[in-house]
Amino acid sequence: MFDHFQPSDIKKYTRDELNVLCDHLRETIKDTVLNCGGHLASNLGVVELTVALHYCFDFPQDKIVFDVGHQCYAHKILSGRYDAFSTLRQKGGLSGFPKREESEYDCYNTGHAGTSVSAALGIAKARDLKRENYNVIALIGDGSFNNGLVYEALNSLKILKTRILIILNDNGMSISPTVGGMHAFLSDIKKQASVQDVPLFEHFGLRYVGVRDANNLDEMIDSMEQVKELLKRESVILHVVSQKGRGYRFCEEHPADTHGVPPCNFIKTGEYGQVLGTVLSDLASERENIVAVTAAMTDGLGLNGFFSQYPERAFDVGICEEHACVLCTSLAASGMKPYYVIYSTFLQRAYDEIIVDACSMDLPVVFCIDRGGISGADGETHQGVFDLSYLKPIPNLTVFVPKDQAEFVLALKKSVDFPHPLAIRYPRESKVIFNQNDFAWGSWEILEQADSDVAVLAVGERMLSLAKHIFAQLKQGGKPFTIINARFVKPLDTSMLDSIAAKTIITLEDNMLLGGFGESVAAYYCNTEKKVYPFAYQDRFIPQGSVAALMKENGVDEEEIRSLIVDCSERNE
Amino acid sequence: MFDHFQPSDIKKYTRDELNVLCDHLRETIKDTVLNCGGHLASNLGVVELTVALHYCFDFPQDKIVFDVGHQCYAHKILSGRYDAFSTLRQKGGLSGFPKREESEYDCYNTGHAGTSVSAALGIAKARDLKRENYNVIALIGDGSFNNGLVYEALNSLKILKTRILIILNDNGMSISPTVGGMHAFLSDIKKQASVQDVPLFEHFGLRYVGVRDANNLDEMIDSMEQVKELLKRESVILHVVSQKGRGYRFCEEHPADTHGVPPCNFIKTGEYGQVLGTVLSDLASERENIVAVTAAMTDGLGLNGFFSQYPERAFDVGICEEHACVLCTSLAASGMKPYYVIYSTFLQRAYDEIIVDACSMDLPVVFCIDRGGISGADGETHQGVFDLSYLKPIPNLTVFVPKDQAEFVLALKKSVDFPHPLAIRYPRESKVIFNQNDFAWGSWEILEQADSDVAVLAVGERMLSLAKHIFAQLKQGGKPFTIINARFVKPLDTSMLDSIAAKTIITLEDNMLLGGFGESVAAYYCNTEKKVYPFAYQDRFIPQGSVAALMKENGVDEEEIRSLIVDCSERNE
Fold this sequence. Notes:
Two copies of one chain form a homodimer. By secondary structure, chain A is α/β, with parallel strands linked by helices. The first copy, chain A, is built from 23 helices and 21 strands.
């Protein structure tokens, strides 16, 4: 069906043909995601919605912004990317998210929740100012609708005096089930008429239209046509109720587990998140003041067990990263010991609150930062490569990166009594255990001591593994070097820095070069004779790909590091 | 009246005495603020409200969180800080914001908008978990109520299953008049009964009570008693309508201008914001695609003229820093040229959007960052000393710091055609003009060339003034040095770095040492013979005080820099 498919073909289809098209889309998405990995259930739920959109609106002249982007696969297939779809999330292939660079049908890149309404407003306002004429649509799920950014955008609709269509795709799920007051509000509306007065939305300047079964193509198309007419005069919120995972029974029954799925051939190694969950539950049994806070991602973070064991002390506040942070700091200000567990890339949302709330009050919140470093197939918007840089300048904050899961467990245990804000940063998966020594706060550790002019200071498991790997190769050739586990990015272990005899220092980190650990070390030695060679990621956004390939291509290249060590060793011989 | 005043005295007062107390508070606040500077109109508006709070509740056992903190002066005076009140905002004196370190009556520090409801929730939840019993109150203005963080907190009230009192102090002003859909919604409620069903708040789990004249003490106390009863069973939102600046006619008539006032003896020098406003208006007359976006602060930023001249292209979206950023990026994605004008400290709120929206899409947004560097009397929460560090690691972003207002004007003019994201960072005031040369993007400038072994690389007007000042002193003693205007913090001017003959490099910046410009320079030279001495702020929060004193105390000390230059010059002679 898609072999000679042109984006404009869809307009000529009969309703029956459109239904067949939906089936084809569903199969294509399912087969591809099971092969490549990606967001499955969310994309299956919006097939009819997407077909109705492409049937009723005129893309790319009309513009659509996908919130987060977990529901853009059908759109990609319908907008001329069927042939490329098998490369989804692969290195050099189609992105799993909307990408302006990829197609004129994608007008705005997304990846983090809640930006779509703001973005639609900006695009619509630009249209007005340029006296152009087209429709602008934000498609947003009910999970993202909890995010404060959406509220800020809704609040300014009247100020901006423009028209947009907001499609609120309500499947009752964030990644976990959607929670909170807005969810209750929407549930209440759903029970009522499909066109009704909703005072809140009216005050925001939005006409309300509801669709009770967004997986019914006829209903969807009829509503879309109606909305298109309304949109000529006013802004509209089209509230559609869809089923996440629709058409694939396993997904329908397990929408949270199948939100994002790995490829079939994915080998799951030990995850830091699982360790976190187990240890935190153990600690909570001893310490009544321990609480855990997340922003809509208990499962991916390893906290399912904690949430079922300690429901009173576990808070999932929805996709509200800022609020989750302030909740933690205020709990800490009142004597609790909060663990804020979050992906590195999403913690960026709470940056101001980390500075002003957690650290300026010096409160003992523990930030458990998962997916630190390169995260892989999600691409630019999801790499956790900025955190060491943006956390470093914040006073009162200690930044710890464990060398392996044993050290991670130790740090978690010790964190219970640590009286200041603490960031513990780790990648998703773990592959090795180096040793199980206790440590003092702020201290580094010598993993390999060699009588050599080269010392490698490596941060975290990935970098220490790389250093060890090179060490094993060079040791045989008689060129061993010192390896230091630089587990505290902040504070630096200055007594160890002072004691390093080697003339050449190499730093390795899974983070941007600018503002990172290597710069700290370079600055520490900046008025000595020592030479420092920092290896970290170059100043560009890192696209999708495998962790190993991306590390190599972006500035942490095994070959290059080995050559440098060899050169330095020989130079000093 | 306050001479032997104890916090508990208020409980024994008659209503008449309480009214006299209000008058006294108002006079004290007015006199002190006119002398010390501070937030005037906002504090005058909540005098009766604060007296009612202290009359009805039992502080410090009960807890109150002041949103932003622009309305805590009466509370400070009533809670045992009358004697110290004359030291308001002075070095070592009382803070203009709530401070835990200052009094047990302040349970949570604030300074940035929108955190109070989250914080009250955390404190209440901790109370529940510890099986304690007291009331927790968030006092928030209608301006802050637009912030997305508040919505995130409201949304989680039901999830957290706890009880708080939210007092929404509605004076119709943010700093500028409050704007947007939520304001319309509240205006509508205000017209109705004082106890009514408000479905939105009900879904959030909040009982609504209204007070139509919060400057009427009787009405305020009666409502407060009623609310206190309700609070035993459920969460309440007490919506009070007050008059900003109440009781001081000039304030009542000019609430925006008297929100924050400088001390009487304040000498206003040339402000960068005024220059920005003038230049941007000129540019906008030539370029139709220029738009300006702010988050509730047109006046302090110098944009009043632009807003009246180009109302269609000027957007004040309220205290919504994240949304303002995405609005800019989407406008830019659609061909407009947006200038996002904001204080440095508040830009922290939009960090994720700067990375993901502006920079990963490489969109030509100009961030005009006012109050960069130490900002003075507002203290820890308002210093603009993190921006160079947190902006540096973001790819595609150029970070420019003008040496004076002439260069600022040039940069603004050139920015119109600059096709990438650009940050222009400047302090509030300007005192000198060095010269008026054109520049190329990414290039630095030699301000003083000397045949010396020392080169000083200084960022921005304050640091260049300092360097010039020291230069003038040492030149007479025959120890001149090279001064370089390092106007681009990113990218570095590497050809100039390569060409510097001096063996000793000194860097000066109005920013944290960690992650800042000095570290970049240190890292650039890290495998050469050059020695680098970075001067910047040490790793601690910077309290209130004068700019000059704070610079000196926190790591940029004229004396120390001069000695170093002298030492290095002599060593190499």
